[in-house]
Amino acid sequence: MPPEGRGGGTRPAPLFDDHIDVDTEMTARDVLRVVGRCIAYVRPHWRLFVLKFGLMLGTFVPLLVAPWPAKILVDHVVLEHPLTDSAVRFPPFFMPFIGAVEGMDPAGLLLATLALVLVLVVLFGAGMAETRDNTAFLAQGQDTATQSENMISAGWSLSGGLWGLGDLLCNIRLVQRVTDSFRTHLFRRLLRLPMTVLDDQRIGDGIYRTMYDAPAVQGICFDITLTPVVSVLLAAVSVYVMEYSFGHIVPELVWLGVATMPLALLLTAPLAGLARRTSQASRSSGSATTNRMEEGAAHVAAVQSHGAEAGERANFADASKESFRRHRHVVAVDVAINLCSGLALLVLGVRAFVVVTDGIVLGDLLPGDLLVVLGLFGGVAAASLTLGRLWVDLQKNAAGVRRVFFFIDLPGDDAASGRTAVSVSSDVVFDRVGLVYPDGREALRDISFEARVGQTVALVGPTGAGKTSLAYMIPRFLRPTAGRVLFDGVDLGELDVDAVRAQVAYVFQEHVLFSQSVGDNLRLGRPDASDPELEEAARVSGAHAFVSTLADGYGTVLGNGGGTLSVGQKQRISIARGLLRDAPILILDEPTAALDPETERTLVAALEDIKRDRIVFVIAHRLSTIAGADRILFMEEGRIVEQGSHEELMALPDGAYRRFVTG
Ligand SMILES: Nc1ncnc2c1ncn2[C@@H]1O[C@H](COP(=O)(O)OP(=O)(O)OP(=O)(O)O)[C@@H](O)[C@H]1O
Ligand SMILES: [Mg+2]
Asked: Of 201, 202, 467, which is best to mutate to test ligand 1, by the most ligand atoms within 8 angstroms of its C-beta?
């Protein structure tokens, strides 16, 4: 299901939504499962959590105590009713104060009550429920991303004053720690994802999930632990005080108090699913905006050279507008939910007001009681609203956290997940290997062959045949979706991925050089290589001659991505780097494409020497590179259609390889 009813339930438009994370619908059970997993991130910080819980309980004090001094001031100081002559009973927790002030004249009572109020203000702030709220003070816009950024360091407390300050600081610390563990976990997983995933989903999306989706975890942690317990407790204590103090005079008041919570729950629950879907859609389009930004900036040369600025700008503007539009939906659902529950509570509040004023007119109650009832009713209403919104907030946060867990759960290349003692000494075997890319494209089918130490194996075939895909499986950059790849008879799935990669030196089809010195670039895979070894590898790949002419020789620092070298020079350095790595398996993807015939001959001759104690895989188009290979695997459309030596394959009268090389 799409995240939102776009296009009447068809798949989401790829421009604004995820490419691989498309199944975004969650059932109530999925939400609960996500919630359960979030608890694991709070567990390490349980001490802080318990402190926060204690501080939150403390915030009840002003909510429950503050209405009573107000009553005393109105009824017993201003109207001068005797304290003992009130039909309303003071709650037990307030009795010590009553005991202390009993018998005082109105002036004394005034001073004592003001002193109590002063203590309450210093400790808990001026209002009865002065919510202390802060964000990270970052500029914030009307979209999910910037608001999430603020949430990471946001805190709140039901109370003001010194207590509220302590509560707030504790809250911020806890939120930061939980979010920190969560997003660091996600980033660790992102770095180990198979390369196909980031190809598909792109970097901007990864950034969005790490920075903007991960903070939702703290909402969940509070929503399911502190919030319900504290809300129910607050409502229960408020109703208890209503019953204790007013139950014998106006019982209806107690029932009104009791009714608020179920009513708030009933009215908000139906909107919870809608809240989750709008939140999911908003986050998804936020990711798309980040992706657009990342792609445009990363490929700025291509954009400028093709005069594509206007198109890129329009694409970004579309994504940005869509992101804001979807955030407006989130706000609209929020407003609807608040309106529904707020209106219902208002009706109950007005009824409570009428009941109490009736009581005052009839003489059963005193005017100050109205203040007490409003205070207590406010407590119940606030608790009910919070509890009513709980499921809604939980759903919205679950939408964010689900996006994080989606990446955390993707099978990645976990290190230390299998045997680490690997050393290829005999062969690499492909056993009926198949590969389907995440987008459903089948790149390889039923690939079986054996390559022994001492052999050169050439992968040959037209473009798109699957040569690179096949080679990527050897260092486990890609995992087979069918069949097995074995090193010395052991399935790679049983081996530690880092140990597997240590066995392979891979020279990529696209050269990856860093803006470091030539020497550092060569030593990437083997930092302890000696200078003579370095030079030897560079000689074989034909790099030594031109490196010697550079200003600082091997110490010359290259431009960004090796940009100060020609393509052929970059290729030679990449090859030298692969040779230097000295791993039992050497894979060269199109090594000779940019080499002149002379260097190619040197390299091919050198490979003869190198293969003695290794397996060399070469992907090439040039006959001069492949003809000498011990075995040629000729591929077409993801399958090996012929295999054998050059002579054997050329001897097939109407062979595909023969046709390929003779053109
Ligand atoms: N990340 C990917 N997701 C989906 N399909 C992919 C991906 N990478 C490659 N493919 C597809 O898999 C098929 C094989 O690609 P591969 O790169 O292995 O071909 P190749 O034989 O190395 O081609 P070339 O000679 O041009 O390098 C192609 O059809 C390609 O479109
Ligand atoms: Mg290729």
From this structure: 467
The reported pTM is 0.70
| Alpha-carbon gap, residue 168 to 176, rounded angstroms | 12
| Cβ atoms of 115 and 276 closer than 8 Å | no
pLDDT, greater one: 446 or 147: 446
Using pLDDT thresholds of 50, 70 and 90, give the confidence band for residue 415: low
Domain locations in the chain as residue ranges: 37-409, 427-662
CA distance 593 to 445: 27
Rounded distance between C-alpha atoms, residue 360 and residue 250, angstroms: 11
Angle at 519 between CA 513 and CA 525, to 5 degrees: 65
DSSP string, 574-585: HHHHHHHH--SE
Least confident span in 112-121, 131-140, 165-174: 131-140
pLDDT-based confidence at residue 47 (cuts at 50, 70, 90): very high
Of the pLDDT bands very low, low, confident and very high (cuts 50, 70, 90), residue 450 is: very high
| pLDDT (average), residues 46-75 | 88
In CATH terms, the fold of domain 37-409 is: ABC transporter transmembrane region fold (1.20.1560)
Residues 6+ apart with CB under 8 A from 591: 507, 571, 575, 603, 618, 620, 625
Whole-number Å distance, alpha carbon 618 to ligand 2 midpoint, is 11
Topology of domain 427-662, CATH: Rossmann fold (3.40.50)
3-state secondary structure of 130: coil
Q: What is the DSSP letter of 611?
A: G
Average pLDDT, the chain: 83
Q: How many residues does the chain have?
A: 663
Q: Which ligand is nearest to the CA of 589?
A: 2
- Smallest CA separation from ligand 1 atom 1, residue: 196
Task: Using the mean position of ligand 1's atoms as its centre, give its distance from the Cα of residue 469 in Å.
Answer: 6
Over the stretch 282-296, which tens digit does the pLDDT of each residue have?
888 888 888 788 777
Residue 392 Cα distances to 26, 265, 325, angstroms: 13, 10, 20
| DSSP string computed for 575-623 | HHHHHHH--SEEEEESTTTTS-HHHHHHHHHHHHHHGGGSEEEEE-S-H
Q: How confident is the model at residue 328 (pLDDT cuts 50, 70, 90)?
A: very high
CA distance 542 to 546: 8
Q: Determine the distance separating the centroid of ligand 2 and the alpha carbon of 348, expressed in angstroms.
A: 71
Q: Is any atom of ligand 1 closer than 6 Å to the C-beta of 467?
A: yes
Cβ-Cβ contacts under 8 Å for 578 (sequence gap 6 or more): 505, 506, 507, 525, 586, 587, 588
Work out whether the CA dihedral 316, 322, 326, 332 comes out positive or negative.
positive
How many Å apart are CA 573 and CA 587, to the nearest integer?
Answer: 15
pLDDT category at 417 given cuts 50, 70, 90 is low
- Longest Cα pair distance anywhere in the chain, in angstroms? 121
Q: What are 516-575's pLDDT values in tens digits?
A: 889 999 998 888 999 999 999 998 888 898 899 988 889 988 876 666 788 888 888 988
Question: Which tokens is 27 given?
Answer: 């059932």
Residue listed under structure tokens 């994370």: 21
Q: Nearest ligand to the C-alpha of residue 638?
A: 1
465 lines ligand 1 (CB under 6 A): yes
Instruction: Tell me if 195 CB under 6 Å of ligand 1.
Output: no
439 Cβ inside 6 Å of ligand 1: yes
Q: Is 199 in the pocket of ligand 1 (CB under 6 A)?
A: yes
The yes-or-no verdict on residue 650 having pLDDT over 90 is yes
Calpha distance 409→345 (Å, rounded)? 42
Distance 360 CA to ligand 1 centre (A): 83
Nearest to 241 by CA among 58, 364, 64: 64
